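re: ur question from earlier - yeah i can do the single chain one, its not a big deal. heres the input i used so u can compare w yours
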Amino acid sequence: MKLLKPKFAVCFFFFSGGASLALWAVHIPLIERTVGIGYVTLGALFMFSGLGGFAAMQLYGWIIDHIGAKTATRIGGLVVGLSLLGPALAQDVWSLGLAIFFLGFGIAGVDVGMNAAALQVDKVNKRAIFTFFHLFWSVGGLFGAALGFATISAGFDQSQTLSITGVVLSVTGVIVAGWLLPNEVVATKEDKNKNRVASKANRRVLPLVILAGLMASAGAIIEGVAQDWSALYLIDIQNVGVAAAAWGLVAFNLGMITGRIFIDRIVENKGRGFIIRWGSLLGGVAIAAQAIAPTFEISLVLWYFLGLGISGVVPQIFAAGGEIGEATHSGRNMARVVGITYVGALAGPSAIGLLTAIYPLNVAIGWGTALAIFILVANPRLEKLTK
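and the output i got, formated as tokens:
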């Protein structure tokens, strides 16, 4: 089977999702000023992103199981680019809240679709390639952060950059989706009894699915600290300008890229548990150290090591989530894992905004260390599951 075009297509959708999220993230300071809100209100609005993400997970999980990953990814790729139009045009707190909801819906939708498409390719490829696809999420993130730095430095505002880029990503996604592997065969009416039995069997592993979701959620919240708060942290704590603040996300994504280049080979030799264990440890230490980072340069180094550490944690937990339970329910199980992840990852950073009412931002972001400890404690149970 020729896999070059399907691989390219999956890589593009990971790139598109990462670029969309990064473009939103580096423009948060400008959007915050346009709307005229503070950290606490912004943190509360982030909760709408989690609600949108959870809604998308239910819809796209059903599409994957009943139609196929190709259709889900095609729709997700169209929606994620268009979802950038909301933050681009928001002028008050209500329109921004609605925009953040649809942004969460768009990013979560393409995420679950492209992960299912990536698993399709991974299963027929000769070597493990799942984390390689996640590398392109980071490449997209690096592109989005760099583009944001360039356009902000040149004097462009969010309405111009986000609108144009969003439309380009959507149109390209619709075209590239044709290269994905075909939708897998959907169960017929005669399969209903068999599916009902499988559903009963699948319920027994639901606690394991929830555990995987909570672990992935913790890892994604740590990623979200960098995505949603690194620019504001550098402006507020390290006293840099809006354009220079984009370098925090650049450093984080460089760390993610570095890790994801090598992770698949490490997994082949050491197993998923090794990546989850040591990656969460490094990420937890790096995020804790941000509380006392004395200079802008040291802070950038710490953002890099946070990206390096956390780069393989969520992808490996996602891969495990897709293998839990009955094969007929792999799409729904992955959707549950990713859904739980997004409820935490897209709403979790809102807690940081609320914490800033009590603590300075450099202390508030340190709660990611507690999440890293949770992953370390829960990992042995997941390791037993995947052996």
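Residues 4-176+206-386 form a domain with the Growth Hormone; Chain: A; fold (CATH 1.20.1250.20). not sure if urs matches, ping me
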